[in-house]
Amino acid sequence: MVLYSGSFAAQDVLCDLRSDTVTKPCAEMRAAMAGAELGDDCYGDDPTVARLEAQLADRMGKDAGVFFPTGCMSNLACLMAQCARGDEVITGRDYHVYADEAGSPSVLGGLSLEPLPVAEDGALEPGDIRAALKPDDQHYAVSRLLSLENTVGGRAIPLPRMQAAAEAGREAGLALHLDGARFFNAITALGCTDTDLAGLADTVSLCLSKGVGAPAGTVLVGPAPVLAKARRARKLLGGGMRQSGVLAAAALWGLEHVVPRMAEDHARAVDLAEALRPLGQVRQATNMVFFTPADAVAAEIGPRLAAQGIRISAGSPEIRLVLHRDVDDAALASAIAAFQSLG
Ligand SMILES: Cc1ncc(COP(=O)(O)O)c(C=O)c1O
Fold it and tell me: Best substitution site from 96, 104, 118, 151 to test ligand 1's pocket, by max atoms within 8 Å of Cβ?
């Protein structure tokens, strides 16, 4: 992705809409990190990591959790834990695990991926899942796992649509994974409980470095035997960390203080979408706004906004703008004023 970073100093940035991964720990989160009880997690004795893993496993109604440095590694370790080399993972063509993880399931996991079309609402169609299943024949990879995602491009897929896809996978005996990089945005928008969504899958990957606001980290939750294998895969991939309680403490703070306020990010996304509507085409979903500027506005949009302290990602023709906890009302007002000045 090309980023319009501009050449201004950090203190000149008024609003960073590139991604919800850009958040920086606030003073309270830093205090929680500084005060965290630590140990060597590869010896299993970092109490803060253990607390985070147990808390999320419990919240999601699963046996166990494992703390990973990133969402990509969590997804990959999960697939490797449940599939043998040569097995097939069915997933969405636009889903991160297929489209945005550098082909790691194939390159590092030896897995075959079957990407399916993604419906308008972000879901996979049960009929497509059934049609993708391979018969038990030496010519084919063994269909082993269905990897779902929610939210997808900001869209919170309704539970009945998730259930329908999950059922198609279950009927075929597939293991079910949910890439919940923005799980908490999904349940906030759907108004459902953690377990309503997490209960549809065997394993769920929960990113803490996006809307939750922590500097790094993802927890994978699921059945104990699968998580034991995923922990081994984490080591294999070089993701075993030591005093990672400093990161887990940030995540615990975010789960307590940031997640309950996530609806504010969604509300600001609605406000931004409304403000941009006269300037081009706009769609909004949870914390994301997708903006296709009218021709007059589009020219040099990134550098012109950067000059006003507003950071956006490059996109052509559509630009993704992402709300997060570091965009408060004042930052949003600056961004809106900067966009309006382009018209
Ligand atoms: C849906 C989805 N899954 C997984 C990831 C990977 O997370 P990470 O960047 O921590 O590897 C992302 C990152 O943006 C994502 O959007």
Answer: 96
Domain encompassing residue 102: 27-257
Question: Given ligand 1 and candidates 207, 210, 212, which is best to mutate, with the most ligand atoms within 8 Å of its CB?
Answer: 207
CATH of the domain at 63: 3.40.640.10
Using the 3D structure, point to which of 203, 231, 257 is the last residue of a domain.
257
**Domain check: are 88 and 186 in the same one?**
yes
Whether residue 158 sits in one domain with residue 180: yes
Q: Span 171-188, mean pLDDT?
A: 98
Q: Answer yes or no: do 72 and 165 share one domain.
A: yes
Instruction: Identify whether residues 16 and 152 lie together within a single domain.
Output: no
Residue 65 and residue 199 in one domain:
yes
Which is the closest atom of ligand 1 to the Cα of 151?
Answer: 1
Cis preceding-peptide flag for 188 (omega within 30 of 0): no
Nearest CA owner, ligand 1 atom 6: 71
Q: Give the largest CA-CA distance in the chain.
A: 62
- Chain mean position to CA 93: 16
Residues 321 and 173 grouped into a single domain: no
Q: Whose Cα sits closest to atom 4 in ligand 1?
A: 71
CB-CB contact of 75 with 205 (8 Å)? yes
- For 45-81, the pLDDT digits (tens) are 999 999 999 999 999 999 999 999 999 999 999 999 9
Nearest Cα residue to 256 out of 214, 218, 286, 219: 214
Residues 229 and 151 reside in one and the same domain: yes
Q: Is the pLDDT of residue 9 over 70?
A: no
User: Which residues, in sequence order, are bridge partners of residue 120?
Assistant: none
User: Which residues on adjacent β-strands are paired with residue 68?
Assistant: 218
Q: In this model, does residue 3 exceed pLDDT 90?
A: no
